[in-house]
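Case study B.
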Amino acid sequence: MEEDVKEGTSDKYSLRGRVFSRLREDILNGKYDEGVELREIAIGEELGVSRTPVREAFRQLELEGLIKIIPNKGAYVVGISDKDVRDIYILRSRLEGLAARWAVDNITEEQMEEMEENVYLAKFHTEKGHNEQIFELDNRFHELLYEASGSKILEHQLKDYHQYVLRIRKKTLASAKRGTQSNLEHEAILEAIKNKNHDDAERLAHEHMINAYKNMLDNGLIKPE
Amino acid sequence: MEEDVKEGTSDKYSLRGRVFSRLREDILNGKYDEGVELREIAIGEELGVSRTPVREAFRQLELEGLIKIIPNKGAYVVGISDKDVRDIYILRSRLEGLAARWAVDNITEEQMEEMEENVYLAKFHTEKGHNEQIFELDNRFHELLYEASGSKILEHQLKDYHQYVLRIRKKTLASAKRGTQSNLEHEAILEAIKNKNHDDAERLAHEHMINAYKNMLDNGLIKPE
DNA sequence: GCCTGTATTATTGTATACAATTGCTCTGAC
DNA sequence: GTCAGAGCAATTGTATACAATAATACAGGC
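Model:
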């Protein structure tokens, strides 16, 4: 998997950036269970760095909500509950709809071209069952949508949520059926944006999230409310 | 004004927490203009601490989007543009609507009582023209709404935005007319929640944000698109 | 005059040393 | 046996020392 998905907030060439990316990935991938205490020295030794960059990475992870730091005590991994996932998908359904609506007016030529290429390529990899590529293309499609919205605030927010549910999304797309369906939905969103149809774009992006959420429910990846 | 509005992410009794809160407040209050370079040593000397807590605070501020750190170069203040404010109000209009809808089912007895007291008290202070109290009560009303939504994710998000536009909100409420109107809108939202009317609650909270936004436009606090 | 390369300086990045706090264990009184 | 308190060990909080990087100024060649 790629290492540094959220560029701009962590330079991957500094020790701190590497610690941050690594811990983030490890937490999202479930290496550390909920409630586990992360010790600065232990993490530092594992990654071959001193406490300083580890501490700085901790502060960032806390603000992302991935760990909770209790002063003078320690840093503890915060899990993502099924309720959190549900909430995020509801929020995403509304905000991605807004992003698609705004993208109609703000998408650039380059973004449109990359989005078309993305959908085209995804069709190929879905047929071949290349899960890793499907995952990456899905990631990129959504990031493109966020960037195309023309709103730094909305983009930042949606990228956050997108990363947050990374673990569960990976499982979801592994199902071939959802992969195909998801790609068709991407294509429909792209068409609506191309046709300058604000309402369709918003509605389709909204439904796309709801469908992704329902798929998780159907496959038992999360429990219903 | 209160100092540490965002509890849970910064303990105000550590040096780092104090640096974080202080810089956050200074940036939001406009002490540092957009693009200003913040030097670790200078900030440290100003607050009487070493570089270590300053650096940690910087990392957090970057993640909040208040400063931008360029590796090996420096930390630069990121301003809040009129467009950012506009975007946030659009997002808030949608998310506060959602919060109000969810609050119908999740608000506790205590929260409901505090909300009623809040609206009642605000009426008094509005008549008297007590701007500081009006501001605090408005703050609290919205935080209560977020907490009552029963979603940590949504609550966290809305509190962030709420803080982010702190500076401009203070100016807005200072106008007596808006203060009165705002309080009437709070009362209407409260009634809808009490009557278990999901649609009304969402619609009214949505409109409340749109009205606040329009008021800022009318008073020339931000430029239109 | 202008370009280029080098030396200098200022600033950030990292490691380490020291201080403060917490939690635990052991002891002893009852 | 249980509880309270002292002392110890482990961990975090902060300061400082050192390393690496980037910007600047300046000298020399053309």
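The longest strand of chain A covers residues 67-70. The remaining cases will be described in the next quarterly update.
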